[in-house]
Amino acid sequence: MNKIIEVQDLRKTFHLDEIKVEALKGIGLEVTEGEFVAVMGTSGSGKSTFMNIAGCLDREFKGKYWLDGIDVTQLSEHQLADIRNKKIGFVFQSYNLLARTTAYENVELPLLYGNIKLSTKQHRETVMEKLADVGLADRYDRYPNQLSGGQQQRVAIARALVSNPAIILADEPTGNLDTRTSYEIMELLQQLNEQGKTILIVTHEQDIAAFTSRKVVFRDGRIVQQQRVDQPKNASRMLQEQLLQEAS
Length: 248
Ligand code: ADP
Ligand code: MG
Hints:
Blueprint: E1 3-16, E2 19-32, E3 36-40, H1 47-54, E4 62-67, E5 70-71, H2 77-87, E6 88-92, H3 103-113, H4 120-133, H5 149-161, E7 167-171, H6 179-194, E8 198-202, H7 206-209, E9 214-219, E10 222-228, H8 235-247
Parallel strand pairs: 3-8, 3-9, 6-7, 7-8
Antiparallel strand pairs: 1-2, 1-4, 4-5, 9-10
Helix pairs in contact: 3-4, 3-5, 4-5, 5-6, 6-8
This protein binds adenosine-5'-diphosphate and magnesium ion.
Adenosine-5'-diphosphate (ADP) is lined by residues 14, 16, 21, 23, 41, 43-49.
């Protein structure tokens, strides 16, 4: 199996006037194709710093990083941006959709920015297919403020999928959502993973991490624990239970 992410001795220090903050103190991690990994840890443990580097949003670090076999430390700014567009789909806690832009237009953005050449027909079909994958084909013309939080996060997931990336990186994707909607989003991520997508999420909630197949725990910039989840919880089932509970 391909290694999608491989980092060795990753270090990152923030310099604030007199103070040095060592956010990452030597992280070693591999994520293999088809995995669904949860990065856990308390606030300030370095999770977002790691995700920013993994997502090629931050290149100011020490150590080694191969993304889908490519040594990203050797790339120019321009090459890095290109790799990021092709290889990575981002999902954020706050959805990060453009406000005056429809669901369709939000999803198509990576196709417009990236070096992705499609005919007009293929372009439209790709966007609509991704909206259908997240269950929102019928809402393609809605603006973010006409959609619920869960629906907005689905649009963000469709946008992350549209360039067919090697990995989805999601930093606290359920952080703003209630229990039921969190389960819906995890159900969707589980389905995508079953279809072969490699996914890395950040969460500080055990019950969300329980849906993934491996937990990696950060503490003070180090990985202090790694654990395979032999029987990941089934998000569809948890969702059904939650709905029954809410109805009673
Ligand atoms: P987490 O996502 O696990 O809450 P972060 O990666 O955001 O943790 O932060 C790790 C450490 O790095 C914290 O001590 C935080 O204050 C510090 N940090 C993060 N981003 C910056 C920044 N841009 N400038 C200075 N310090 C930062
Ligand atoms: Mg964070």
